[in-house]
Amino acid sequence: MNNFLITGLVAWLLPGVGHILEGRWKRGIILGAVIWTMFIIGVWSGGAYYPGFEYKDGALLYLLNMFARFGNGIGSFIGFWLALNPPPNVAAWATFEYGGRFLEIAGLLNYLAVLDAVDINQGRKR
Fold it and tell me: Which ranges constitute the DSSP H helices of 1-126?
């Protein structure tokens, strides 16, 4: 694929697929499996409902959380959709904050994977 914008967009939307498009099957499968596994663990742990506060309560932390979670591509839309109707006692779950961290780390890892796929596309990396 010659267009780095398409590679970057596909790599962001579907973690691991950008590398597969560039012919790096092993790397794409490993990255996709790790990112999606972290995402699924984060959602099952209640992380989709984290941070549990609103923008007015802590603007910087809220923005950092949203930026990191947005890195999950399609997963971020799934997470935001799940957060619309949280269970009433989700903040009492022992895994609530850990789930939030898993979603954030998965998103940040996907940002790195997108940059890697674009670098491979541009010939800056082998």
Answer: 4-13, 17-21, 25-44, 59-70, 74-82, 96-122
Single pTM value for the model: 0.88
Domain boundaries, the chain: 4-122
Percent of the chain at pLDDT > 70 equals 95
- What is the CB neighbour count within 10 angstroms for residue 112? 12
Amino acid residing at 118:
V
pLDDT, position 126: 73
Conformational region of residue 3, where left means phi above 0, alpha means psi within -120 to 50, and beta covers everything else: beta
Residue from 113, 106, 112 nearest 75 by CA: 106
Q: Give yes or no for a contact between 12 and 107, defined as CB atoms under 8 angstroms apart.
A: no
How far apart, in whole angstroms, are the C-alpha atoms of residue 119 and residue 56? Answer: 38
pLDDT in tens, 43-92: 998 888 876 666 677 778 888 888 999 999 999 999 889 888 888 887 78
Q: Which two structure tokens, joined as six digits, stand for 56?
A: 């007015």
